[in-house]
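Troubleshooting: if your tokenizer reports a length mismatch, compare your output against this known-good record of 181 residues.
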Amino acid sequence: MNSTSLNTVFNATAVFIWKPDCRYRVYVTSREIFIIRFGGQDLGSVVWHYFGAVGAVIEALFKSRKENALLEKIKVMDEASPEDLLPQDKRNFKISAANIVESSLEPEKVFGGHGRHIGRWIICRSNGKKMVFELNSIEEMKTACEALPKLFGGLLKVNAQWDESQYRFVKKTDGSENGLG
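Known-good structure output:
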């Protein structure tokens, strides 16, 4: 990767109410975050559900192909500079700490989430826009908990902490800085 002081990369899904969700690759540098779209909301499983057992078999075939294609796309993206990826999609953008009013990392939302997820990253930008990203794996959430406080400092509230006994992120109860205990 060619970006200035690229430190960390993870995936996040931007969730919306009135439009399809977007899957993003988040590149965290020492000065800013690049949020690069690599996929959209997967509505295929909803369609195949109506075809019963035959639909489940067909879905499984398409799903593995789609996942392999996404992994290949991510591999190609990671070889490029995030700055070069910005113009490839109108939904790509970058954010610096100066453009954030507040931000938080939260445990999973029990009701109202957009599918299975481990945690959420909420950003309130200086232009008044609020974005909610769902983090779909434990590794993505742990990576976000480690990387985002380094860039955002006091602008980021980490309201989730890892609970080894429950093997998930829960609402934060102690004073640990990054939610990893």
